[in-house]
Amino acid sequence: MNHETRLHLAAHPFAYPLVRLLARLGPAVRVPGLGVVVNDAATARAVLTDARFRKDGPGSPGDLWTPVLGPSVLLNMEGPGHAALRRKLMPLFTPGYVSALVADVLREPLDDLSLRLGRGETVDLVDVMRTMAGAVICRTIGLGEVSAARARELFAEGERVVSMVSLRSRRLNERQVTVARGVLDRIGDIAQTAYEAGDESTVMGRMKSQGLSAAEARGAAGAFFLTGTETVATFVPRLVALLHDHGTKVDDLDRVIEEAMRVTTPTPVMLRSVGEPAHVGRLAVRPGDRVVIVTHNCARAYGPFDPSRRHPPELRRIWFGAGAHFCIGYPLALAEIRAVATVLLSHNVRVVRRRAARGVLIPTYEHLWITAA
Ligand code: HEM
């Protein structure tokens, strides 16, 4: 069994074998109690680019996050309101801006990582990535320079909220909503203070100058915090492990990253609620039906990790979504991943020990100890 499969089984010992079994039943299959499950990239893309499939109806991400974040936080919106908010947020994610932000926030942590590897230390890449992804999100939501301990603390708070969701969750219970609100309110307060200060060199200050209201800025900070921390932090150790396990020589870093994204699919499922009668593949669906796009099955159908593989059009970056909700943080995620991977590759790192994480939503390592080769 390869290490990636072990990660999935450690995270979802019962659900993962079932989810993989469903992949054999066709591009779209109705599963009582779960919804219409999509296992195929072309069918997934058709759903993601069709406005009849929504993120704000029954069984959608809105059901999970609206009680915590409020109704207007991009990932639970549709239509003109969603498009208008996205337009205001887009300038915050231009490749130039995010590269400069990442270079600034990660300069010291990356120098430190390079020094430790250069000295021959064994480093836990999971801990390093939690600190770095935590530091980037701290800066994004409006904290200035923060200590590694504060970055880790914030990361752990996000993890606590995300881990409330399982592959079967439809709603958070009252206690979970209270805990999640407590965390997200603290994030919102930090964001609002930075927003009110209005310093245009900060993301929150830029939101103000883009014409976002304080409530929109608070909501956006919460959405970034939930979606943009664990996804990046869990991916980098898996990327490094894949390179190690396959003895990959990296000529084209971006291509290797995309192929590792395909195999790992850090966001393993995407949910939609049917708003109007439609078809998913050959299945007729009705308003209120739930569609569960198993991105992992869609992507794994193309075989094992192979960086020389070309991704066909229907597959292209489906692990970041498609259509109106395509990941707005994609440039930021890529800038972070590239920055860390470049340092790791310059030290030609190898994996010395690892442990899979249990009870997590996104399969990953609990520890991945690496050292310079
Ligand atoms: C490896 C890293 C990441 C992956 C794999 C990823 C994946 C995704 C996917 C699949 C979606 C679409 C979900 C759907 O259609 O249901 C999405 C949306 C989103 N992502 Fe990411 N993401 C990553 C990093 C980030 C980062 C760093 C941020 C920002 C700080 C971010 C912010 C968002 C937001 C706000 C949305 C909602 C967009 C909308 O609904 O219009 N993501 N992401």
TrEMBL record:
- Recorded superkingdom: Bacteria
Q: Does the keyword tRNA processing apply?
A: no
Q: Does the keyword Heme apply?
A: yes
> InterPro entries, from UniProt?
Cyt_P450, Cyt_P450_B, Cyt_P450_CS, Cyt_P450_sf
| Molecular functions per Gene Ontology | heme binding; iron ion binding; monooxygenase activity; oxidoreductase activity, acting on paired donors, with incorporation or reduction of molecular oxygen
What keywords sit in the KW lines? Heme, Iron, Metal-binding, Monooxygenase, Oxidoreductase
What family does the entry list? Belongs to the cytochrome P450 family.
Q: What is this protein called?
A: Cytochrome P450
